[in-house]
Design a protein that fits this description.
The protein has 384 residues and is an alpha/beta fold. The protein folds into 2 domains: 5-156 and 344-381, Nucleotidyltransferase, domain 5 (2-Layer Sandwich); 161-338, ATPase, nucleotide binding domain (Nucleotidyltransferase, domain 5, 2-Layer Sandwich), CATH 3.30.420.40. It contains 14 helices and 12 strands. The protein is globular.
């Protein structure tokens, strides 16, 4: 193991709920220690701005263009990440000697089929802000981590499997978890990493997760979340709707494959019949859809997983976890239950990927994004 360094990951995901900040110590191949993690929620005005940015990004063909509200959204995203990092280092000043920061930015458009992915967030401006928060020479900043993969013909997502594999090393032996393992991240979009010993990991997005549920709850109740899955638990799943929604051609495609946050909005609007459902039945049906989408990937995997490890915001939804157990017929445990941090996992992953980028190690692989060869990635702003 090379000498581990402190690295911070900054992640703002497809759920649009805030900025996750997490610290780990790593050499980009192994994880030596976990540090603290925090989430800094977006204000409602910020979230509304980002929702408008998602709409205005739809016609983009130039990933560097920032027309209309996108320029304002990029400024706000950068400021909120700088503020989140400042708050984190004020709470944990002993970590101001961090060596690397990985900055994901906010994805507003993901169209790998035309070799386009757009993450807003001003790397140079954030690097300038970081220098004011850390002792000289300061950390290296690594950002724009998806672009190289997409430009080479990969899906550009998910990027976390390299981190999942590092975490899972020895996990089956240490905790007596039966393998293969399926690590499921339940963010706005759900993605999986399949891990089986020394075999290459297999990864892909599986379908919608919190994004559709949150948007539905916001439209119906004014609150963009089904807290603890309470509404879904009180509702009835329309299995006819689930079967109809699963006819989308995405589900018959083998991995690797990926999604934009809004890829299923129109499909569900046309085929979901949600307008005729109560809040409870709509929440139950959308929650069941998330579980069914995960189930749809199982026939495409080399072996059926024995254990599913759930992470991300959806791992706090007991109704969703119960539906996963019922529909998949596998043991479902949370990331926290195996000693990981379910809420900080993606931010930790981008800290890990930043160190990999600085060391010249690949971030993505043919079996995880469909890229033709193991792919380096990230734009680096060196320390100092």
């Amino acid at each position: 193991m090379s000498r581990p360094v402190k690295a911070i990951g900054l992640m703002s995901g497809t759920s649009l709920d805030g900025v996750d900040v997490a610290l780990i110590e790593t050499d980009g191949e192994n994880v030596a220690a976990f540090g603290p993690g925090r989430t800094y929620a977006y204000a409602e005005a910020d979230r509304a701005l980002l929702m408008r940015a998602l709409e205005e990004a739809k016609p983009l063909t130039d990933r560097s263009a920032r027309p209309g509200v996108l320029a304002e959204a990029e400024r706000v995203v950068t400021e909120r990440h700088a503020q989140a990092l400042a708050a984190f280092l004020a709470e944990f000043p002993e970590h101001r000697d961090v060596a690397a920061v990985g900055f994901h930015g906010q994805t507003v458009l993901h169209r790998p089929e035309i070799r386009l992915t757009v993450q807003i967030g001003d790397g140079p401006a954030l690097a300038w802000a970081i220098r004011a928060l850390t002792p000289a020479p300061g950390p290296a900043l690594v950002y724009d981590l998806r672009a190289a993969d997409v430009a080479a013909g990969g899906q550009g997502a998910p990027l976390v499997p390299a981190y999942h594999r590092a975490l899972a090393q020895g996990l089956v032996k240490e905790l007596a978890l039966p393998g293969p393992l399926l690590v499921l991240n339940l963010g706005g979009v759900a993605n999986i990493t399949w891990l089986d010993g020394e075999a290459d990991p297999i990864a892909c997005d599986t379908g919608p997760a919190n994004a559709l549920i949150d948007d539905f709850m916001k439209a119906r109740t004014g609150v963009p979340v089904d807290r603890d899955g309470a509404a879904a638990a009180a509702g009835r799943v329309d299995e006819t709707v689930i079967a109809r929604l699963l006819t989308h051609p995405f589900f018959s495609r083998k991995p690797p494959k990926s999604l934009d946050r809004n890829d299923f909005r129109e499909w569900v609007a046309v085929h979901g019949g949600l307008d005729a459902m109560s809040v409870e039945d709509g929440a139950a049906t959308l929650t069941a859809l998330t579980a069914a989408c995960v189930g749809a990937i199982l026939p495409h995997l080399p072996k059926r997983p024995a254990t599913l490890i759930a992470a991300g915001g959806g791992a706090h939804n007991p109704t969703l976890l119960a539906m996963l157990r019922e529909r998949l017929g596998v043991e479902v445990v949370t990331a926290d239950a195996v000693g990981w941090s379910g809420d900080a996992l993606e931010a930790q992953a981008f800290a890990f990927l930043a160190v990999r980028s600085l060391r010249g190690l690949p971030l993505s692989f043919p079996t995880t994004t469909g890229v033709p060869r193991p792919m380096l990635g990230g734009v680096v702003i060196a320390a100092g």
